[in-house]
Amino acid sequence: SEAALERVLAALRPLRAPVHHVWGNHELYNFSRERLARSGLNSRPEAAAVPGGDCQAYAFSPAPGFRFVLLDAYEVSVLGRGAAAPRYRQALRLLQEKNPNADRNSPAGLKEPQFVEFNGGFSQDQLDWFNEVLKISDENQDKVVVMGHLPIHPDSSDRVCLAWNYEDALSVIHAHQCVVCYLAGHLHDGGYCLDSHGVHHLTLEGVIETPPESNAFGTIYVYDDKMVLKGRGRISDRVMYY
């Protein structure tokens, strides 16, 4: 794991542009949150800490009129945490309540199939912080792009790969006018929908499925009235008007 992480960081180091990271289940299979926080995959500014723990959510503005919000979809999770951690215990209680299967990575028979171990959720502290960021963005008339590893809209994912409390995050977004797009990963086949509030939900295809010796990446071009995704390999092209 350490050698693989170093290969990734070595490829990123020559970049002259800022790099922002969103942690997902594959990072947390290999490293604890404490180890990731000390690694090159921690891009959260120290001053941006969300109250209430070690949440990795933060916001930044790369240009006037645009704001990006990175959410920590595994803040409440059994992945990457020790059994004594409060967020671990909170996550375990949720799983025990929602998933009676012996294998808690199995969604078989579940009314809410997103409650599996390889997913996670958002704390109330993070959702409250997110709401305040969007309130300020509304006042500034910013266009906001939100990113999180887990999808939060059922029409942009299968029902298994959603964040545990996806409806809570979606309700925060729908309470404001500023969000134009939510970018996610996790579901390797990808997905897309334009929701009832005009927000684009784009779940990017997993480059982990790319055959050896081939390539896959996407570049999103951001304009005043649209975002244009140009993809290569597994990544599909997409035009998203605001």
From TrEMBL:
Domain of life, per UniProt, equals: Eukaryota
Which InterPro entries does this chain map to? Answer: Calcineurin-like_PHP, Metallo-depent_PP-like
What is an example of a Pfam family matching this protein? Metallophos
MF (Gene Ontology): 2',3'-cyclic-nucleotide 2'-phosphodiesterase activity; ADP-ribose diphosphatase activity; CDP-glycerol diphosphatase activity; manganese ion binding
**Per the database record, which ranges form the Calcineurin-like phosphoesterase domain?**
8-188
User: What name has this protein been given in UniProt?
Assistant: ADPRM diphosphatase
Instruction: Give the organism, scientific name.
Output: Nothocercus julius
Gene transcribed to yield this protein: Adprm
